Amino acid sequence: MPMYPSDYRYSTDHEWIGVSGRRGRVGITDFAQKQLGDVVYLELPEVGASLQKGEMFGTIESVKAVSELYAPVSGRVVEVNTALKGRPQGVNEDPHGAWMIALELADPGELKALLDSAAYGDLVEKS
């Protein structure tokens, strides 16, 4: 079973969030990138966009499919990883390091509803 960073929280939609203070960086999990295959394009929001938990914030396109990306928590986009827009295959190379957006958290309490690494690993194993 792949290891999922223990300092991240995970959504059932296969996004992760790594939080420091009131900011969180969001990306997709190793499981998600393997399901997608080779990533060829990312559409990400603009800095300043407000997102609600569960709201679509962009799309990820692979050679197999186009998938929607969902915000694991509510917040305001404070940074977008523009390097990934020019080199989207970074998601395949380092899924738990290749963050897509950084959010200023609206309600840090929403993190409690997300999965820890062990629970997420169990979810993936059952998939």
Molecular structure report:
The protein has helices at 30-36, 82-86, 90-93, 117-126; strands at residues 8-10, 15-20, 23-28, 39-43, 50-51, 56-62, 66-70, 75-80, 101-105. β1 and β2 form a beta hairpin. It has 127 residues and is of the alpha+beta class. It has a 6-stranded antiparallel sheet with strand order 1-2-3-9-8-5. Strands 4-6-7 form a 3-stranded antiparallel sheet. The relative contact order is 0.27. It has a single domain (8-126), classed as Beta Barrel (OB fold (Dihydrolipoamide Acetyltransferase, E2P)).
Brief digest:
The chain is an alpha+beta fold. Helices cover 20% and strands 35% of the residues. The longest helix is centred in the last third of the chain and has 10 residues, at 117-126.
Structural class: alpha+beta
**Count of distinct structural domains:** 1
Give the mean pLDDT. 96
Based on Cα principal axes, name the global outline: globular
Low-confidence stretches: none
The biggest beta sheet reads:
6 strands, antiparallel
Strand percentage lies at 35-45%
Radius of gyration in whole Å, from Cα? 13 Å
By DSSP (H or I, 4+ residues per run), the number of helices equals 4
Please give the CATH class.
Answer: Mainly Beta
Helical proportion? 10-25%
* CATH superfamily annotation: RNA polymerase II/Efflux pump adaptor protein, barrel-sandwich hybrid domain
Distance between the termini: 12 Å
Write the SSE topology:
Blueprint: E1 8-10, E2 15-20, E3 23-28, H1 30-36, E4 39-43, E5 50-51, E6 56-62, E7 66-70, E8 75-80, H2 82-86, H3 90-93, E9 101-105, H4 117-126
Antiparallel strand pairs: 1-2, 2-3, 3-9, 4-6, 5-8, 6-7, 8-9
